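Appendix C reproduces, verbatim, an entry submitted by the partner laboratory led by Prof. M.T., so that reviewers can inspect both the input and the predicted structure.
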Amino acid sequence: MNYVTKLQHFLPKTIAFSYRQRWLSQLVNIQTVSPSDSNLKANNTNNNNNNNNIKQPFVPRYEFPQYNITLTDFKGHQMKALKNFQKLLPQLNMIIELRDIRAPLSTRNLLFDTLLSRTKKSSTLSKLIIYTKKDLLSSSPQDPKKYLDKLIKWHNEINEKFIIMNCNHNKDIKTLMDLINWQNNKFIKNPLPMGFRILIIGMPNVGKSTLTNSLRSFATHNDTDHHHHDKEKKNTVVAKTGGQAGVTRSISECIRISNDKSSSTMHGIYIVDSPGVGLPGRINNCQRMLTLSLAGCIKDNLIDPIIQADYLLYLINLQQQLTGKKRNSHELYPGSIQNPTNNVYEVLKRLKGKANINDNSMAMSWVDNWRQSRKGIIFDPELLLECDEFSLKDYLGNESKKIRTLYSDGMLNTTTTTTTTAANNNNNDNNGAKSKKKKKDKKVSSNNNNKLFIN
């Protein structure tokens, strides 16, 4: 079995159809040594020097090992948030869902889509997708224009509207406000009693609270005079933010962002911030959890830092080789261009240098650096595929089937949950009444015994 045949054999089924042709076309032109030739040269001691000069091309891993890791960070307050979403839907005019531009598939929560499809108002409710952290994509290995064209084609398949923005950039916030005002003008002839209301949803730590504060700050800045801006600026932080997932735990009150002074209080524009909602373990997988970990959408202590660093190394090597070394003028890890490796411990050793740091601490620091500020890597491997190699519509169809099984099993049925809760409350009340009666009977019996004893 020669070198190219080995590559064909070990390509995983999940991405074989996508990477095979491009990888093999690159490797056919590379002078390689077949196993039989290498064995002959190894046996010939006179050709040792020639054999050492022949350098095998670096081959990244095509498949990441399936480690036994936690598959969910789905907590009780997230289930409560889903129930509150359903209650708020009749009052809403628009939904804004935030996703991380580095992981557009993994940070897409199909629980929201399923919830909307099960409501009567889904046809009249406008929805906008916002891909956040645009600044972390500026130096991606892929051509940004090609990446954007790919997203446009994918979203056209399912008739979705989206924009890419930085939630801290005033120009992007102004563009979003123009879109919101344009949507509001559609309802201006028949305004709702509670005004134009928008719910902001998404996975944990994708920038929902940051966007809420930026919209509020933009509205406050336009509503106040320049001399009073510093005084008003203190009141623009209406949502708590942080670098960790799960900072927001409950749905906020309605926050006015309308900057039109002529608008009445009743007919203003309001947003509602919400906690991030993840996925239950039954519809999650190892790769998605690792991607969410790199994007900061789950607690960083749920997965071993070495495994996180290893997955990051897997993505770096895969993308750097597929897109070509010349694209990256800087190394993504020490020696990533001249001496790439698939050994995570070797990479951690290079990162540490002479510093006295253990592997876990170094892995946490390296991953967190990429999570917060480093640019150039896409966390979803599917984004490396061409549009004809990956169908977003088929992918969403398969994922939706998993969610429908949860609803059919009653795990995500809010009505069933409410009924069960009510039944439990009734049982608790009955049990409480019985307990009180037993205590009362016991007390009476005790008093009678005391009386008999005294007499």
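DSSP finds 16 helices and six strands in the chain. Additional entries are available on request from the coordinating office.
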